[in-house]
Amino acid sequence: MPRPARPGSSRDSSARVSSSRVGFSQVNASRHGLSGISPVRLALCAAFATCLLQVAPVHASQNGRNGFSGNPDINNGATCAVCHAPAAGVPAPQVTLAGPGQIDAGTTAAFTVTLSGGPAQTGGVNISVSDPAGALAPLDGDLGLIMGELAHSAPQAFSGGVLSFDFEWTAPDYNGDFTLYAAGNSSNGQLDLLGDAIGTAALAVTVVNGDPPPPPPPPPPAAAIALETWTTGLDQPVAIAHAGDTRLFLVEQPGRIRLVDAAGNLAPAPFLDIRDRVDNGASELGLLGLAFHPGYSTNGWFFVYYTTRDAGSGQLRSRVSRFSVGASPDAADPASESVLLEFAQPFSNHNAGDLHFGPDGYLYIASGDGGSGGDPQNNAQAGDRLLGKLLRIDVDASGAADCSLVAGPYGIPAGNAFVDGPGGAGCDEIYALGARNPWRFSFDRADGSLWIADVGQGAVEEIDVIPAGAAGGLNLGWRCYEGDQPFNGIGCAAPGSYLFPLHTLSHADGNCSITGGFVYRGSAYPVLQGRYFFSDFCLTSIRTLDGAGPGAEASEVLPAGQISAPAAFGEDVAGELYVASLSDGILYRIAAVPAPGDLDNDGDVDIDDLLALLPNIGEPASGADDPADLDDSGDITRRDALLLIRACSEPRCARG
Prior knowledge:
Layout: H1 24-27, E1 94-98, E2 102-104, E3 108-116, E4 122-129, E5 135-138, E6 143-146, E7 149-152, E8 156-157, E9 162-170, E10 176-187, E11 197-208, E12 225-231, E13 237-241, E14 248-252, E15 256-260, E16 272-273, E17 287-292, H2 296-299, E18 301-309, E19 316-325, E20 332-344, E21 355-357, E22 363-366, E23 390-393, E24 430-432, E25 440-443, E26 450-454, E27 460-466, E28 481-482, E29 485-486, E30 503-506, E31 514-519, E32 532-536, E33 542-545, E34 554-558, E35 566-571, E36 577-581, E37 586-592, H3 607-613, H4 638-647, H5 652-655
Parallel strand pairs: 2-11
Antiparallel strand pairs: 1-3, 3-9, 4-7, 4-8, 4-10, 5-9, 6-7, 10-11, 12-37, 13-14, 14-15, 15-16, 17-18, 18-19, 19-20, 21-22, 22-23, 23-24, 25-26, 26-27, 27-30, 28-29, 31-32, 32-33, 33-34, 35-36, 36-37
Organism: Mangrovimicrobium sediminis
Region (Disordered): 1-22
Domain Cytochrome c: 59-185
């Protein structure tokens, strides 16, 4: 169910940055004489599971996932409960964890998780330990090991209203107090995330007769970026957009759009509230996308994507509508809705929902494959259905609707995959085929390339790149392929018929559902220039790709654990990037962490940095984030200059 909204709040300047050495390029650039230095542009760059946070872009996977056991040290204690939507009046199952409360160090003991009650048709579980030391292991084929945790290998059937999972834990060689955590899902067996119920359990285990506990682990390596809290108090943010000015607009899945000003202050009144027409009754339903018309400053038009129920039949549908801003620039008119496009959703998941205007001025729309699992209706490969596609329409024309259930006012771009007119062999709205659940996509504002992050089934997440100006009809491959791996070959063409991913993520590494972002094209952090940002809902580290070429390499720029449930990235009018935590309702601004000596934050310690440092010798450092204070003495000294020369990448630093 939707989380209650929290009061809006502006940024707390005392807690804005989660790492030192952030914000130098804005705060200290003029102090160090860098304002005239030209930035160096660097060519750098899901299946959602059964246990994901409620309003995530998930799929009804039959494989269990790690990270959702209720362990407070993992994903902020998230469980399956915030994904699987309970039905009214369905009680939560009772979950128990049975086993010894004390064992000797280095020994192995058996434990059992039991679920009883709830819908009690099929069930699953995720199990973890408070300390990663020691080892969990399954005792039968019902469980599998994923990144040190246990999860069901497939949904298991209840017997007499009861379901049990057996496992063992080998204690570490040292003494201590540990806790086993388990979250269990009692499902109705429908694979659509509706009508399920979740319970949790924890069991304290004391380890004795071993060595003394080890010292705490060393801190993780420094991140290349930091997250600055920009605003809080959001209710399930799933999309971020700007309207060509300094404001940001945050889409809340229950059905509101919130407004954040240039200082990070959240307006108390929503920009738009259409909760009265949005169906948000399951984890992937709701208000999902937002795009402002390129001419918004004059026509006031913006477009949204949401799920709703047909008033007559009750059929679940995805809808794209146009709205207009009202008399106030900070409030839209809910009565101005003009429905452009509607299509039926056979299941409640895989709705995609992202919207963006391309450099060609057309509106691009991401649609999922219709849900369930494995695309049972083969929607993504069917040219006569809008499901599992990237759609493209001309919102400045009209009279050309083809496969929409509502003949809304839009035209069909000439380069789409099918342009044979209404009633022809294929849906004219289709631009690209073969998508599973392209939860987030974006355009590189520098070269117009289209980056698509498509959520996988149970093994592979993928990032696809379509070059700018590419003709319609490209096929991303689902369900023939999951990422670059064959999935269901029935009716499929030769491999050369498909566009294979630029990059894939494996579920074996802890990924479960990719959250795509943007290529950084801002100016505040030249070191980030050209990098494509992305994350994953389970493995929440933020990563980048250093370009779109065949040899593009991924780098982790922020370790996992710094943000919970990253659901959306966004960029402001200047190209600076943001990321939203769905579970915590927080919008973060992404900032680069300059290396010591990199005064201009261009990713290289060079002669420009030395020339900027020298005039400041003898002055106090501006603070802990001052990259000119290489020895952290609190002052800019000749020693700092010598250290910078040693780190300098150019021989002329030493000569200077």
